[in-house]
Amino acid sequence: MSALKPADALPQHWTSRLPARVQPFAQLSRWDRPVGWQLLFVPCLMGIALAETLEGFWGEDLWLAARLLIGAIAMRGAGCAWNDLLDRKIDAAVARTQSRPLPSGRVTARAAIVWMLAQCAVGLLVLLSLPTVAQWVALAAVPLVALYPLMKRVTWWPQAWLGLCFSWGALVAIAAARGSVTLDAAALFAGCIAWVIAYDTIYALQDIEDDALVGVRSTARLFGPRWRDWTFGFYLIALVLWGAAAALAGSVLVTGVALGVIGSMLIWPTVSRVEAGQPASALAAFKANVWIGLAVAGAFALPGLWRTLQPFLVQ
């Protein structure tokens, strides 16, 4: 693998075929690491699925999902550029991040700012296409996203702050689908925060030694040898809160059973396979959370799918 290619990038990706001058900007947005925008988008799918529990799905839901997908990709890219601008000195001191475009010198700070603003413009177009309530909910996340890169310097819980940012799409999706943020949306949001803390703790295991050297804080360092117990605990909290969201939305039985299956067949094996001191196993477990999230979104979607298909099945 090229020394300039991030260690956790996909070995084969369409960004490798981009012109040489463009590739660093694609890497700055982490396009070669799609797991980030996928994890940002999955709570949006959860929100849409939960919102349509009693009504079933319509064409508008697919259109909403498409817009939120574009927004997730654009804003994740902008967020990564902002994060790298603030962290370029720290990244230069961490083995896994030294090859990023800014610390490696392939992108200047000024060019990174222009690129960040261009992606923000795409996000703005998506924002303007949403209902007014959803627009205000989305805008409320901007300060959280802006402050996130600083959290690893001031708190041992930057993963919790990331949870606020990466779970916000659930609130936006429900606000767009229903016109308000309801109690089941709050339970879904809280569950997603616990989920993010769990999977980002696993992700932080990759850098735990370098983070200690440069003074970066994380829950992986905070939990120490008991990181696995804590991680399982946050996954359990997520499942309980997601079950509460399903109950509040009116689908406790079907969704609850599905969440139990997800916990035993996906979450438990994923975390159990992580080996201390083996970054590759932590990265693999982190990436597996895309499938965990999609499975949870599917669990929330089951009642809505039944109501959508029921008129055709009973004919």
How would you describe what is shown here?
It contains 14 helices and no strands. By secondary structure, it is mostly helical. Helix content is 74%, strand content 0%. It has one domain (20-306): UbiA prenyltransferase (Tetracycline Repressor, domain 2). The radius of gyration is 20 Å and the shape is globular. It has helices spanning 23-28, 35-51, 59-93, 109-128, 132-139, 142-154, 158-178, 183-204, 208-214, 219-223, 227-249, 252-272, 279-287, 289-313. The mean pLDDT is 91.
**Oligomeric nature of the chains:** single chain
- How many strands appear in the DSSP assignment? 0
Low-confidence segments: none
Which percent band covers the strand fraction?
A: under 5%
CATH topology: Tetracycline Repressor, domain 2
Question: In the CATH hierarchy, what is the class?
Answer: Mainly Alpha
Structural class: mainly alpha
| CA radius of gyration | 20 Å
Give the integer mean of the pLDDT values.
91
Annotation field: number of helices = 14
Give the biggest sheet. none
Number of domains: 1
Query: Helix coverage percent of residues?
Result: over 70%
H/E series:
HHHHHHHHHHHHHH
- Large-scale geometry: globular
Distance between the termini: 57 Å
> Mind telling me which CATH architecture this is?
Orthogonal Bundle
CATH superfamily: UbiA prenyltransferase
Topology:
Layout: H1 23-28, H2 35-51, H3 59-93, H4 109-128, H5 132-139, H6 142-154, H7 158-178, H8 183-204, H9 208-214, H10 219-223, H11 227-249, H12 252-272, H13 279-287, H14 289-313
Task: Please give a handful of descriptors for the protein shown.
single chain; 315 residues; mainly alpha; Tetracycline Repressor, domain 2; globular
